[in-house]
Write a structure and sequence with these properties.
single chain; 93 residues; alpha+beta; five-stranded antiparallel β-sheet
C-alpha cells in the first residue's frame, strides 16, 4: 500500500470482518485509483460474476464481490473495495 492508514485500522478490520473477507492487518489492503463504476464494468467480463453488494459500512462506501472468478481456472475470490476519498482500498481473499 502506498499510504499507511493506521487511523483506519479498526474500521478496516471491522469492515473486512463484516464483509466476510479475511484481513490480518491494514497492509493486506492495496490502493487503487479505479472507481466503483470501473470495477462494476470490469466484472461484466469475468468468467464468473459472483454476487455484488454495495453498502456503507462504518461510514465508508463499500463494494463486496463474493465468489468472483476473473478468468477460468483461477480460484474464486471474495473482493472488498472501500472508498476512502481519493483512492479505493482493495482486499481480496
Amino acid at each position: 500500500m502506498t499510504h499507511s492508514y493506521p487511523y483506519l485500522a479498526v474500521e478496516l478490520d471491522n469492515i473486512a470482518t463484516n464483509a466476510g473477507v479475511s484481513c490480518h492487518d491494514t497492509n493486506d489492503f492495496s490502493e487503487t485509483l479505479a472507481t466503483f463504476e470501473e470495477y462494476k464494468a470490469a466484472r461484466q467480463g469475468y468468467a464468473e460474476k459472483g454476487v455484488m453488494t454495495e453498502k456503507v459500512m462504518n461510514g465508508f462506501p463499500c463494494l463486496v464481490f463474493e465468489k468472483v472468478q476473473a478468468v477460468k481456472s483461477q480460484p474464486r475470490r471474495s473482493v472488498l473495495l472501500i472508498d476512502v476519498g481519493d483512492v479505493r482500498l482493495f482486499l481480496q481473499a
